[in-house]
Amino acid sequence: MKYVFKVVLIALFFLSISCTDNKSQNQKYSIGFSQAMTTDNWRKQMNRSMQVEASMHPEIELEISDAGNNVEKQIEQIEKFIEAGVDILIVSPIQSVPITPVIDKAMVAGIPTIIIDRKIEGSNYTAYLGADNFEIGSNAARYILSGEESGAEIFELTGAEGSSPAHERSKGFRDIINATKDFKITHRIKGDWEKSSITSALAALFEDEVIPDFIFAHNDRMALGAWEVARDYSLEDQIKIIGVDGLFGPSGGIQLVKEGILDATILYPTGGAEAIKLAQQILDGDSVGKNNILRTVVIDSVNVGIMQNQFDKINQQQNDIARQQYTIKEQIATYNSQNNLVKIMMGLAAILFFLMLWSIYLLYKNKKSKKRLELNNQKIIVQRNQIEDFAQKLKESNESKINFFTALSHEFKTPLTLITSSIENIAKNSSGSLKAFDYETKLIINNSKRLLRLINELLDFRKLEGDSFRLKPVRTNLHDFIESIYSDFKSEALRKSITLELTSNVKDPVAYIDRDMMDKVFFNLLSNAFRFTPKNGNISIKLSETEKLFEITIKDSGLGIPKEEYHRIFDPFTQATNNGKVSSGLGLYITKQFVELHKGQISVTSRQGAEFKVSLQKGKDHLTDYEVSEKELSLKTGQGDSILNEEIENLEFPIPVEDENKECLLIIEDNSDLSQLLYKKFHPFFRVYLSDGTDGIEKALEIIPDVIICDLNLPEKSGFEICHELKNDLRTSHIPTLILTALSDEESRLKALKAGADMYITKPFNFEVLEQSIISVLYNREKLRYYYTNKIDEVKDEEFNTSEQNFLKDLNSLIEKNIAQPNFSVEDLAQQLHISRVQLYRKVKAILGISISEYINSQKLAKAKNLLQDSSLNISEIAYQLGYSSPGYFSTSFKNKYGVSPKQYRS
Ligand code: FRU
User: Fold this and answer.
1) Strand, coil or helix: what is 296?
2) CA distance readout (Å), 549 to 172, 480, 546, 601, 633
3) Range from 87-96, 373-382, 638-647, 711-720 carrying the lowest mean pLDDT
4) Tens digits of per-residue pLDDT, 255-286?
5) Which atom of ligand 1 is nearest to the CA of 118?
6) How many alpha carbons fall within 13 Å on the CB side of residue 339?
């Protein structure tokens, strides 16, 4: 598809190029013409002939601007042409002087400039085009002279002052007239090329009866004006009037001569067509003359007919040309659009052709891939059948395995029941008081009960999987039912200092429930709450109702459950990730299934702690599938009908008086049964301290024990973290740490060793192995201690770069530095090492086996030995230098340590 799109795009691209290329082939030239004004026909004629000529050159674009006889405007318009960068500039100046600078500017800008009709100052232009105005003036004079022998009086009506034709026509005229005796220019009226400029002055002269024989007007418009004034004074037959321009058309000079209004007119050609021809020559690079003078002729009654005929023809030709040009233009436009259409069609045909090829190719490809697919399909079908077979076999084998484990679980139940009932019998045979049990017996009870519960969970799970649970709903007072379970947990709450409360605002909470199932539901929710609620926490049970439901909310103040885990907490084999407790992960799954069997709902939220809400429907309409019992039997929960549930967790030991000389063992373990068992086992040999994991580090720092046993799965910090922190703290880094854990994988073992653990023992463990491990880490510590006390100065850095060695080096250098100060105390030393006095004492004792003060003294005496041997200081001086308060005390200490007095030693 992508390819098709690309090809279509390419085709369209070429198409668009071919549509536009006839345009780009022809180069266009721009000609800017600044016309002085267009109020009169002479100028209009000039423009028209320019346009007609330009239309014959399709490459020329002619733009005409009209200055409206305003010099500033003309300058501005010329500047615009310069800015636009026209290829040729044509200017018909209004006046010579003011226009000259802007023409200079165009020339500097490199624009070839043609001056037409009126001139500018100087000769900084490319070419001038126009008739010779001197010749026009002299032609007019000669015409007068030729018609009159006796002389005559003449009025001259001049064109606008400052324009070159007015000046030159006057000069040419006067030069001839003034050379005669009898011909005189008696009056000159200054006009501005328009008839209104001369009428009043002329009328005034006529009024004064100053009448000439001839009037020479610089153009036909003023000449017509003069005739009209003469007519007003009935002088029109008396005065001969000569004009200039000889324009063709109504009120043009030719027409006026023909009508006898003018005697003659001197042809002054506009030069419009010639200007364009000249421009074309310049554009073609041909050389052109500087002054291009147009021919002029006198038109009078003799030749006016011929002239008119000629002009008529010319005019007709011009009109024909214009018409033809228009038709040609139209045809070109039609040709272009048809040409484009053909190209588009060709492009489309090309696309069509390509698409045809493409679809043939696709058809072929499709056929091929269909074949391949069919083959693949066949293979897949074979594979699927194999997988189905395999899955069936796997299912069967799985089924048989699960059945085996279910059967095994059932098998476990019997011996466990036997164990628990035997214990019950023992209880009954003894005085009846549970206190009479020894610790191990209570452990058996506790753990048999736990195993039984786990096995029951497994069996319930299997039953739920097999859909073989049937509800036996019994009419039950929900409050009393929950209260009986609540009572079972009261002693546990007391033991863990947890506030447990049950509240209800329901009057008559009668519900239909399967008591066995609901008992498991609430028992499970409450035991979870107890597992995760720390000492001094709260657990609340609240019974409330809505119109259709009873709602039981169990809320604890434990760690809670992360929000993202709400949805999967009820899935089988799942547990929240934020607690280190290990469980089967079946409890909440079974709980949910049991609630749903009742057509109820269970949900969890967690703000501070976890909050489980069980909603059960009121009445019994939702239980039509089951046989409902209305007999409200007395309440006795499933979990509470054995002595195994009575204060079973309350395993207390008499705390014996500790022997200060025994080594100190800290056990960090959250399973209270196990920690109590370890306590009991190790108590005869060690001073044993227990932590449930929530305060492991604090206890270690407080006690500075000789050895630590630490679990890995702990409620707040993991054993890895605790071990890592202790091993990185100067105060506790020396303490041998044994990890005792159910995690038997290599990864955890490596992680623990990396965290600094000295040993890694997995559960279930052999007690003797554990005992021996403790003995051996302590023995190793002893060996190290011997090494430190005897060879500390000989130990090379690379050899033993432990934190202990670094600690001893710091200690030694501090003692050395302060050895002479009698007041330097153990407190000062501890402060400089940033640990407490007790921690220093315990650390030194643990590493070196002697007290810190003994160690300081031994360092001093070793130094004394050196001084006695190698220096000339006397004994008192040595005593004071070593910070002894008196030489006598020094001598006694020395003798106690080495058996000889300092004096004897020196000699
Ligand atoms: C037209 C015109 C003509 C005259 C010429 C002189 O505007 O007045 O009548 O011959 O200009 O430049």
Assistant:
1) coil
2) 127, 17, 5, 10, 22
3) 638-647
4) 999 999 999 999 999 999 999 999 999 999 99
5) 12
6) 14
How many CB atoms neighbour CB 840 within 10 A?
23
Calculate the average pLDDT of the chain.
Answer: 86
Measure 454 CA to ligand 1 centroid, in angstroms.
124
Q: Is the pLDDT of residue 720 over 70?
A: yes
Q: Residue 529 belongs to what domain range? A: 450-643
51 and 120 in a single domain? The answer is yes
- Tell me, yes or no, whether 565 and 476 share the same domain: yes
CA distances from 659 to 249, 685, 687 (A): 145, 9, 7
- Confidence class of residue 93 from pLDDT cuts 50, 70 and 90? very high
758 lines ligand 1 (CB under 6 A): no
Q: Rounded to an integer, what distance in angstroms lies between the CA atom of residue 331 and that of residue 319?
A: 18
Please, what's the b/e burial string for 691-705 (b: 16 or more CB within 10 A of its CB; e: otherwise)?
bbbbebbebbbebbb
Total-model pTM: 0.42
Ordered DSSP codes for 60-128 = EEEEEEE-TT-HHHHHHHHHHHHHHT-SEEEE--SSHHHHHHHHHHHHHTT--EEEESS--SSS-SSEE
Is 454 found in the same domain as 373?
Answer: no
The rounded distance, in Å, linking the Cα atoms of 890 and 907 is 17
Query: How far apart are alpha carbons 294 and 269 in whole angstroms?
Result: 7
733 and 861: one domain?
no
Q: How far is the CA of 169 from the centre of ligand 1 (A)?
A: 11
Residues 98 and 164 in one domain: no
Establish if 405 belongs to a structural domain.
no
How close is the Cα of 125 to the center of ligand 1, in Å?
Answer: 21
- Distance, CA 93 to ligand 1 centroid (Å)? 11
Does the residue 887 lie in any domain? yes
CA distance 25 to 107: 29
- CB of 92 sitting under 6 A from ligand 1: no
Report the distance separating Cα 689 and Cα 798, nearest Å: 36
Say yes or no: 246 and 321 in one domain.
no
**Residue 767: CATH number of its domain:** 3.40.50.2300
Ligand 1: residue whose CA is nearest its atom 6: 165
Q: Which amino acid is at 571?
A: D
143 and 243 assigned to the same domain: yes
Q: Which of 771, 803, 824 is a domain's end point? A: 771
Confidence check: pLDDT of 637 > 50: no
Q: Considering its fold, how many domains does the chain have in total?
A: 5
Q: Supply 629's token pair.
A: 């019992």
Domain boundary, last residue among 329, 349, 381: 381
Contact 809, 870 (CB under 8 A): no
Q: Could you tell me if residue 785 is inside a domain?
A: no
Strands 499-504 and 538-545: parallel
Q: Are 311 and 277 in contact (CB under 8 A)?
A: no
